[in-house]
């Protein structure tokens, strides 16, 4: 009975595993001509997983009923909420890739398989209830991501991005594994709930080092300062659809995993890790903002924007409360919409030959060439800057509110002050699009899929998005509450 219940809880992971195997066989037999068909099949499989997970999130499932395999896997509402965002980011990466990869001669049947395997790894990550499950999911996602970063073999930038990501990712994985081994050695267990019980009376020196090393390893995965050095180079060098994938789904998975480790495994020792998180939050906000100011490449600018947004998310984690966890989930949801919309808009910037444009100067006078595209991209920039009435303002507001309610008023004030710096480079892009002389290079046409994704993302982060904030906020609060239930 225990096995049957556990298997029912991991149904989405089973679907993803079988789908990856089936698509791999189809690709092996049919060759690269099956790539588009495999992408559609992968989207259907992920959408099916979305349909499985959504009812659990709406029901706020948590506690013992959501535990599988004796605590190693947790299919609670918190993991479900994160999975829905992961699935959305993965589907977007599958939909926007074919035209781009075909144009550069790199559309192969392995692409959807790698995305599904990465999605499977992320799905395991956010449901981890044990250090062993954590590492399996993390490495499954990472191995697929390394290949995706270097997917365009004819592009030296892509190969360089893959190599850098692999080397630094392996280093981070080693640090994380060392921290896990120290944690196990000084607590005698790898289960999150058991670790929480052991450290409730206080952290020993060894367990403290284990916690620090684990935070360092996970900080790399979310590209938090000072472990962000790989992000601009990898984002710039990787194919743009892959960069959009890296900036959305894996970011959600890593942040959710960090929250689960901090609030579940070490939730009884919030003061032990709060100072580290506060430093990473402020440093990420400031470095992300300052680093983006001098960028001329849009992908590098969005990389620093990602670092900047991670800082705001960590402000919610620093609160160490259910409200803080809920604010993180809400911010992630808005962040995924903003990120997908920004990268889709970037993919739509093409010259008359259909080649990708990545320079900020290429945006000059975009308003006169493609006013709808310019308006959508302006909405993304204003939302990322947190300027009302766009939804990015609400995302920042709930994070700051959680920090204030946790008596972290100074942190909230410093984060608000630092956010003003970031507004500069977002507004700079808007100025280039609307007030500079047209560059005359954005002449290519975009397909319906890109337009559909861009318009959907724009509507989500527009003032219309506020209509769903009450329901969405309640959903996030119930999901976050499951992190604090005994199982």
Shape, please?
globular
Strand content: under 5%
- Low-pLDDT stretches: none
Mean pLDDT: 88
CA gyration radius, whole angstroms: 21 Å
Q: How many domains?
A: 1
Number of strands: 2
Sheet with most strands: 2 strands, antiparallel
Distance between the termini: 18 Å
Which range best describes the helical content: under 10%, 10-25%, 25-40%, 40-55%, 55-70% or over 70%?
A: over 70%
- As laid out across the biggest beta sheet, the strand order is 1-2
Write down the secondary-structure element order. Answer: HHHEEHHHHHHHHHHHHHHHHH
The secondary-structure class comes to mainly alpha
Count of runs of 4 or more consecutive helical residues: 20
Question: Can you walk through the features of this model?
Answer:
NDH-1 is composed of 14 different subunits. Subunits NuoA, H, J, K, L, M, N constitute the membrane sector of the complex. One of its GO terms (molecular function) is NADH dehydrogenase (ubiquinone) activity. Its EC number is 7.1.1.-. This protein has helices at residues 2-9, 11-30, 35-59, 77-103, 110-126, 131-149, 156-187, 192-199, 205-221, 231-237, 240-265, 270-293, 298-319, 322-347, 366-369, 371-385, 391-405, 409-435, 448-461, 469-481; strands at residues 67-68, 73-74. The chain has one domain (1-483). It is globular, with a radius of gyration of 21 Å. The model has no long low-confidence stretch (mean pLDDT 88). The chain has a two-stranded antiparallel sheet with strand order 1-2. It has 487 residues and is mainly α. The two termini are 18 Å apart. Helix 4 packs antiparallel against helix 11 and helix 16 packs antiparallel against helix 18 (409-435). It has 20 helices and 2 strands. 58% of the residues are buried.
């Amino acid at each position: 009975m225990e096995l049957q219940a556990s298997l029912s809880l991991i149904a989405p992971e089973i679907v993803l595993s079988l789908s990856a195997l089936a698509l791999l066989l189809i690709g092996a037999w049919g060759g690269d001509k099956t790539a588009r068909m495999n992408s559609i099949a992968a989207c259907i499989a992920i959408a099916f997983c979305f349909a499985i997970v959504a009812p659990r999130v709406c029901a706020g499932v948590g506690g013992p009923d959501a535990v599988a395999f004796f605590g190693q896997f947790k299919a609670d509402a918190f993991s479900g909420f994160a999975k829905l965002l992961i699935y959305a980011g993965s589907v977007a990466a599958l939909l926007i890739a074919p035209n781009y990869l075909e144009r550069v001669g790199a559309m192969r049947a392995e692409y959807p398989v790698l995305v599904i395997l990465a999605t499977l790894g992320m799905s395991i990550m956010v449901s981890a209830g044990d250090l062993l499950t954590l590492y399996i999911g993390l490495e499954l996602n990472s191995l697929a991501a390394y290949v995706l970063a270097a997917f365009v073999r004819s592009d030296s930038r892509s190969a360089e991005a893959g190599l850098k990501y692999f080397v630094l990712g392996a280093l981070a994985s080693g640090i994380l594994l060392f921290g896990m081994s120290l944690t196990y050695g000084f607590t005698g267990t790898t289960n999150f709930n058991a670790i929480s019980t052991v450290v409730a009376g206080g952290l020993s020196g060894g367990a403290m080092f284990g916690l620090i090393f684990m935070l360092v390893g996970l900080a790399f995965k979310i590209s938090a300062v000072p472990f962000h050095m790989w992000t601009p180079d990898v984002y710039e060098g990787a194919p743009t659809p892959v960069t959009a994938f890296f900036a959305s789904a894996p970011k959600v998975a890593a942040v959710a995993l960090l929250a689960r480790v901090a609030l579940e495994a070490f939730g009884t020792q919030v003061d032990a890790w709060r100072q580290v998180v506060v430093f990473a939050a402020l440093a990420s906000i400031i470095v992300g903002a300052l680093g983006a100011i001098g960028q001329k490449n849009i992908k590098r600018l969005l990389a620093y924007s990602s670092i900047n947004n991670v800082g705001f998310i960590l402000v919610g984690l620093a609160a160490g409360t259910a409200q803080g966890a809920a604010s993180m989930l809400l911010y992630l949801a808005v962040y995924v919409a903003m990120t997908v919309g920004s990268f889709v808009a970037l993919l739509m910037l093409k010259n008359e030959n259909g080649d990708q444009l990545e320079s900020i100067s290429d945006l000059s006078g975009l308003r006169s060439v493609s006013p709808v595209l310019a308006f959508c991209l302006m909405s993304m920039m204003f939302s990322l800057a947190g300027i009302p009435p766009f939804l990015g303002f609400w995302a920042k507001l709930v994070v700051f509110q959680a920090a204030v309610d946790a008596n972290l008023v100074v942190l909230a004030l410093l984060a608000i002050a630092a956010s003003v710096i970031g507004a500069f480079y977002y507004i700079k892009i808007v100025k280039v699009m609307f007030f500079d002389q047209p560059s005359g290079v954005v002449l290519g046409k975009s397909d319906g899929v890109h337009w559909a994704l861009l318009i959907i993302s724009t509507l989500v982060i527009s003032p219309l998005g506020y209509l769903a904030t009450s329901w969405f906020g309640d959903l996030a609060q119930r999901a976050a509450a499951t992190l604090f239930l005994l199982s």
